[in-house]
Amino acid sequence: xxxxxxxxxxxxxxxxxxxxxxxxxxxxxxxxxxxxxxxxxxxxxxxxxxxxxxxxxxxxxxxxxxxxxxxxxxxxxxxxxxxxxxxxxxxxxxxxxxxxxxxxxxxxxxxxxxxxxxxxxxxxxx
Length: 126
Fold this sequence. Notes:
Elements: H1 3-34, H2 44-66, H3 69-90, H4 98-120
Helix pairs in contact: 1-2, 1-4, 2-3, 3-4
């Protein structure tokens, strides 16, 4: 892959992570409107776990732009698979609201596409 094409893929992956992150965040905002006060009180440990999970797509925005091809490719494959599985599993915790299913479908599609794109991304001789 020539340098310009490599930079284009890095920009594409970074943009996909921004898109996924915005969907995660807006889904959380919508969920706040759907909650009855006091109906859901997560523990500090659960909040820490959620924060750590969200750092993956946030961090991948930078990793996609700043790392070497090898690190970038494998990080995107691993992070894409991790976030796809994590989001898919949340659909089985309880009966999800329709808006949550919509956001989840978008998020799962996006992160699966990230993993697939990174998997297919190979450097070609100049």
